[in-house]
Design goal:
MFS_trans_sf; Growth Hormone, Chain: A; 8 helices; single chain
């Protein structure tokens, strides 16, 4: 009820009216129990959750798979591992700085595209220095996607079902990690 009032107030500030389907969707989600069924019975919530789980699975695969495959890069594995660890900090900083000024969906999509492209390029490049630069760029992008996916997930769902949604995202990420080569 409080969420509907807030949305209605925001709509009037923008000289708009809150559509009936939004009212019905929120009311339907609120009436149901606060578990996985309440997410799966509302079409838009189910669709968003499935997309988030797909993104989470792919991100988990690459996020945990890249460090496991460091030995395949023609570079010193100890230095490479250290550089990968150092890439976490700028990834978090970049994500934090970009969140307020860009669209979340665009940011997650672009960073996912960058790490996917870097993974493909890295498999075809044989020069050690080029390979390490491409791998570090991909790892920076996947770290950013990893962090942003949780933020995106938290912002999309109501407080009542948020813990279930984050748990499902975590399961998808860990499933991706489990199948990492």
């Amino acid at each position: 009820k409080m969420a509907l009032n807030t949305l209605a107030k925001m709509a009037t500030w923008n000289n708009k009216h809150l559509p009936q389907n939004v009212r019905k969707s929120i009311a339907a989600m609120h009436e149901k129990t606060n578990n996985l069924n309440s997410i799966l019975t509302v079409a838009w919530a189910r669709r968003i959750m499935l997309v988030l789980m797909a993104v989470g699975g792919g991100t988990g695969l690459v996020y945990f798979g890249m460090p496991l495959n460091i030995g395949n890069i023609k570079f010193n594995p100890y230095i490479n591992t250290s550089l990968n660890a150092l890439m976490e900090v700028p990834a978090i900083a970049a994500g934090t700085l970009l969140l307020p000024i860009t669209d979340r969906r665009l940011l997650v999509s672009v960073s996912s595209g960058i790490y996917a492209l870097c993974c493909i390029i890295c498999s075809f490049v044989s020069n050690g220095w080029i390979q390490i630069v491409v791998e570090l760029t991909g790892f920076l992008a996947v770290c950013m996607t990893f962090d942003l996916t949780y933020v995106f997930c938290l912002e999309l769902f109501a407080t009542e079902v948020r813990s279930v949604v984050v748990a499902m995202l975590r399961k998808a990420i860990m499933a991706g990690a489990a199948i990492a080569p």
